[in-house]
Amino acid sequence: MNNVLVIDDEPIILEALYNTLMRMEEHDLIIWKASSAIEGIEIMRSNRIDILMTDVRMPVMSGLELVGLVRKQWERCKIIILSGYSDYEYLQPALQQNVFDYLLKPIDEEVIVETISRVITEIETNMQMQDLMAKAENQLQKAQSLLHKDFSENLFSGDLLTQKMIAESVEMLQIPVRCDQDVIVVVGRTDRWPQGYSLKEKLLMHYAINNIMNEYLNSACRIVPFIEKGYMVWLIQVAESDGDNREYQDLNTLHWYIGEVLDKIQQSIRQYLKLPISLLLSKPNIGWLSIARTFKEMCAWLQSGIGLEEEIIFIEQIDNMKPNYEGREQSYIDIKRSMNQLLNLIESGNLATFQKELSDFFRSMQGTVFLEYSLQLEIYVHLSGMFLSYINNRKISPFIDGDLEMQYLSNYSLFPQWSDMEAYFLRLTDHLFSLAQGENRSQKKEIVDEIDAYIIESFSSEYISLSHLAKTFHLSTSYLSRLYHSEKGICLTERMKQLRLMRAKELLLVEGKKIQDVALELGFYNAPYFTKFFKKNIGITPQEYKQNLGIAPGGSSAGNDNK
């Protein structure tokens, strides 16, 4: 999905460009239009801009002046200059600012379509998989992992108890952050690994993901990556001011910027690395002594799955997190490691791998010559707690089959031997995974139904954009579109168009209602554009629709199409 901003101070040209882009349905575009550079700047402050088409000669601020401002906020934005003048004085500065193309007016529609298609192709091919993997291999060879791993474990577990201890570790490891400044935390989870991936391949992919994060964020901030408990974690701070980029000199503004580009990062990872990942963005202003608690809360949120399957993006939801930590310290490191691994696997939803690891764990325990009874109880309690947490997080206890009685999760003595306990947990796993999949589908349907209800309730008073819906429901625009389409079998933008047409038909039936009033109520800028939209989708004009139903055109002659 790419965001396009069109700016021209000539209304006829602006409408023609806007309508041409709207007809490019083969590309996933969100389009804004502005009649001046100042109006365009206001749009740019609230929305990410991937492609800018701007007139070069405009009052107050020229298109070339605007390009400089755009480069500071959206460095990766592709810019197309439009001009009615072929003078060299305009072409040379445009080329110096590395614009994508320079088009002379009047511009044929075919030229616009071809240029935009080339822009999108370049955006999609800028980051090549070969380059990403070469960088990842190089980083893997140079990694000084042991000291960093020790620092990471202590930082995210809360064992670095003082600011001084954290500062000393950061200085010793030469980590490029400042301990006297707060941070933003981003946590990422690989939702599903391709079958057969080795540990080295997964580590390479983590480095490649980090390279993509850097491509989007490195110019705007300081960003330090970690891998902790199977999650990718990034600590982010504002960059040092160098006089050239002063757009993100406070964490609140930087936090907004990161939220705007997370879906592009997610899309790039899916496109180039073929991996679905979920991303969670903390609130801004996280103190260093609060990083461990914030990380645990974010992991708990991701582990719960939030009922939305893969490729989730959640922003500023930390206040709503209520994790439950009831684990006990275990005496043996190997058993503790196995328990943690099983917990990660059951939360990941990989049934086959979890069952294999569970069976292997029971084999290893049964192979022990002597296992103290207290340790047997401890293992049973941890396994039962793991399954109970899974059941309670997903609220599926009422649906547990009768032959899988819950008492088996609270009474160790019901199992004559460990093979019986293994068989029970394997049967329970099959049943729980099946129930959880059904619950995910139910939650997705509930969210889509809420979106429908919101659109229907609000459509008569305002035009609801895709970006507005995404912000309202705290989801990225790309994930919202995929979720809606998977549940309803129709893209969200098409559904919103259908609702506008349904509402248009209702309003046109109101006696005395002028066509221009209907257009304004539905969010169209003028009656002619509404007429064109209506005829394209219905096959007749609004006036003909009124006449076909035998309704007089609001106290005027039937030929007046602007009423």
UniProtKB/TrEMBL annotation:
<dbReference type="InterPro" id="IPR018060">
    <property type="entry name" value="HTH_AraC"/>
</dbReference>
<feature type="domain" description="HTH araC/xylS-type">
    <location>
        <begin position="449"/>
        <end position="548"/>
    </location>
</feature>
<dbReference type="InterPro" id="IPR001789">
    <property type="entry name" value="Sig_transdc_resp-reg_receiver"/>
</dbReference>
<dbReference type="InterPro" id="IPR011006">
    <property type="entry name" value="CheY-like_superfamily"/>
</dbReference>
<feature type="domain" description="Response regulatory">
    <location>
        <begin position="3"/>
        <end position="120"/>
    </location>
</feature>
<keyword id="KW-0805">Transcription regulation</keyword>
<feature type="coiled-coil region">
    <location>
        <begin position="126"/>
        <end position="153"/>
    </location>
</feature>
<keyword id="KW-0175">Coiled coil</keyword>
<keyword id="KW-0902">Two-component regulatory system</keyword>
<feature type="modified residue" description="4-aspartylphosphate">
    <location>
        <position position="55"/>
    </location>
</feature>
<keyword id="KW-0804">Transcription</keyword>
<dbReference type="InterPro" id="IPR051552">
    <property type="entry name" value="HptR"/>
</dbReference>
<dbReference type="Pfam" id="PF00072">
    <property type="entry name" value="Response_reg"/>
</dbReference>
<keyword id="KW-0238">DNA-binding</keyword>
<keyword id="KW-0963">Cytoplasm</keyword>
<dbReference type="InterPro" id="IPR018062">
    <property type="entry name" value="HTH_AraC-typ_CS"/>
</dbReference>
<protein>
    <submittedName>
        <fullName>Two-component system response regulator YesN</fullName>
    </submittedName>
</protein>
<dbReference type="InterPro" id="IPR009057">
    <property type="entry name" value="Homeodomain-like_sf"/>
</dbReference>
<dbReference type="InterPro" id="IPR020449">
    <property type="entry name" value="Tscrpt_reg_AraC-type_HTH"/>
</dbReference>
<keyword id="KW-0597">Phosphoprotein</keyword>
<dbReference type="Pfam" id="PF12833">
    <property type="entry name" value="HTH_18"/>
</dbReference>
